[in-house]
């Protein structure tokens, strides 16, 4: 094994072994010292890898006993955890304290006015400026492990507008399954567009398995990371259970990935979009949390095999985001300022924890 073996590589290897059943549910994992000695890597590398696996719900540590596999394949539909009678709500702050500094935005605006000139007065393509979608594509690949083409990206003026566009794409007068509790404004937008909502109760790891099994809807709207308002993050097993719901019911998932950039993990959160192999996940994220609440811009990722057909359904809509703002976001992504800001906030969160 190469001397420069990274903890993220070990994490990915162990995760694959767990998911594919080489380490079974409740089986004890090798001790950190044994694994380090066997693989010829440092104890610190193993500790970091185990920490990632534990935070994502693949393993759990027991005092003086070691680590045990806690991941269960969604196909098994494990016995549901007991219903929490008093599910605590962790309401998020407005985001003002974690928004990007005014000085950074002001510097970027000045640079954009000089760099783009009259380009800011030109009309935008319906999906958003191509150069922004290219910059976003590169960022998603580099920082999030999400691989898309520019044609799969749709720029909108906030997640709320994209919810309404998704109704246009997926069809009105049907039922969407949503987490309970969940973002109230999202519920109102769907109802206003003719959607009936089916509420699925939340447990400590995500939507209760029993609720998923009984769900009748063919569209599932979920927030796997920091669901609002509960703050619950779905475990690795639960995320695969969501994807199994798609396979069993030939359904669609709308993945609302708000706030995921600020994950405390040493790697990007695994998105359902990147895990999906059936072209059945639509992915939404916005910049109101990462840059600031006044920065009304979001993006929708379309499943590759559905992109052409989906875009035909909404081809008459113009992009609702001013070109100047699209240029500003492009510059923030290309200059690295956006990622530096994300890393600063993550370091601050860790130091405050």
TrEMBL record:
- What are this entry's molecular-function GO terms? DNA binding; DNA-binding transcription factor activity; pyridoxal phosphate binding
| Residue intervals passing through the bilayer | none
Give a single Pfam family match: GntR
The protein's UniProt keywords, in alphabetical order, are:
DNA-binding, Pyridoxal phosphate, Transcription, Transcription regulation
Its domain of life reads Bacteria
Check the record and name the InterPro entries matching this protein: Aminotransferase_I/II_large, HTH_trans_reg/aminotransferase, PyrdxlP-dep_Trfase, PyrdxlP-dep_Trfase_major, Tscrpt_reg_HTH_GntR, WH-like_DNA-bd_sf, WH_DNA-bd_sf
Q: Write down the Gene3D superfamilies for this protein, in alphabetical order.
A: Type I PLP-dependent aspartate aminotransferase-like (Major domain) (3.40.640.10), Winged helix-like DNA-binding domain superfamily/Winged helix DNA-binding domain (1.10.10.10)
Ranges for domain HTH gntR-type: 4-72
**What does the sequence similarity comment in the record state about its family?**
In the C-terminal section; belongs to the class-I pyridoxal-phosphate-dependent aminotransferase family.
Q: What protein name is recorded for this chain?
A: HTH gntR-type domain-containing protein
Q: Which organism is it from?
A: Oribacterium parvum ACB1
């Amino acid at each position: 094994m190469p001397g420069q073996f990274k903890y993220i590589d070990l994490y990915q290897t162990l995760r694959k072994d767990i998911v594919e059943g080489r380490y079974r549910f409740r089986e004890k994992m090798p001790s950190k010292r044994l694994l380090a000695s066997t693989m010829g890597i440092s104890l610190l590398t193993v500790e970091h890898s185990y920490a990632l696996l534990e935070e994502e719900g693949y393993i759990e540590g027991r005092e003086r006993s070691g680590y045990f596999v806690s991941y269960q394949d969604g196909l098994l539909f494990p016995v549901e955890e007991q219903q929490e009678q008093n599910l605590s709500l962790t309401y998020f702050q407005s985001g003002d304290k974690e928004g990007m500094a005014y000085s950074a935005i002001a510097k970027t605006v000045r640079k954009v006015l000089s760099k783009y000139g009259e380009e800011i007065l030109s009309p935008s393509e319906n999906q958003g400026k191509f150069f922004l979608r290219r910059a976003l594509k590169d960022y998603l690949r580099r920082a999030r492990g999400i691989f898309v083409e520019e044609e799969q990206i749709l720029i909108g003026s906030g997640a709320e507008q994209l919810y309404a566009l998704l109704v246009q794409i997926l069809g009105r007068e049907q039922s969407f399954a949503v987490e309970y509790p969940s973002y109230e404004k999202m519920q109102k937008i769907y109802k206003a567009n003719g959607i009936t909502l089916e509420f699925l109760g939340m447990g400590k790891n995500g939507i209760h398995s029993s609720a998923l099994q009984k769900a009748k809807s063919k569209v599932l709207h979920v927030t796997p990371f920091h669901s609002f308002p509960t703050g619950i993050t779905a475990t690795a097993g639960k995320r695969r259970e969501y994807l199994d719901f798609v396979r069993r019911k030939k359904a669609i998932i709308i993945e609302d990935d708000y706030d995921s950039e600020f994950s405390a993990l040493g790697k990007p959160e695994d998105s359902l979009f990147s895990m999906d192999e059936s072209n059945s996940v639509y992915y939404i994220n916005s910049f109101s949390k990462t840059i600031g609440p006044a920065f009304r811009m979001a993006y929708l990722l379309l499943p590759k095999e559905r992109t052409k057909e989906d875009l035909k359904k909404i081809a008459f809509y113009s992009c609702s985001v001013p070109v100047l703002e699209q240029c500003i976001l492009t510059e923030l992504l290309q200059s690295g300022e956006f990622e530096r800001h994300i890393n600063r906030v993550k370091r601050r969160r860790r130091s405050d924890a």
